[in-house]
Design a protein that fits this description.
- The chain is of the alpha+beta class.
- The protein has a domain of 72 residues.
- The chain is built from 2 helices and 5 strands.
- It has a 5-stranded antiparallel sheet, with no helix packed on it.
Length: 103
């Protein structure tokens, strides 16, 4: 058993895991433009980490685009697949397709 992690031996301090996120978790990101009465943030899905900058990749389901943002408020108490729609996309639905019995 190793008493210290390699990161801690190399850097002299313990590793920080505060930037790790669950793939697919929802997050609110503030919009830069918009009308005065529009909502100031929108809900997006986390899909990865940016290698070029200190930020996260997010998916916009409305515009079906991927973008990078550093400033996001993650919903930590919402699991990514809690949504009924997400479960149906994965194939966990137990509903049988409706068959027409009139003929």
């Amino acid at each position: 058993m190793v008493p210290q992690m390699l990161y801690e031996i190399w850097h002299g301090k313990p590793a920080s895991y505060k930037y790790l996120r669950v793939w697919g978790s929802p997050a609110y990101i503030k919009r830069l433009v918009g009308d005065k009465l529009d909502s100031r943030s929108s809900l997006y899905r986390f899909i990865g980490y940016s290698k070029e900058t200190a930020g996260y990749y997010f998916y916009d389901p409305v515009e079906q685009k991927v973008f990078i943002s550093r400033n996001a408020v993650f919903l930590k108490k919402v699991f990514p697949s809690d949504n009924r729609r997400d479960k149906m996309l994965i194939g966990e639905s137990s509903e049988e397709p409706h068959r027409d019995s009139t003929t």
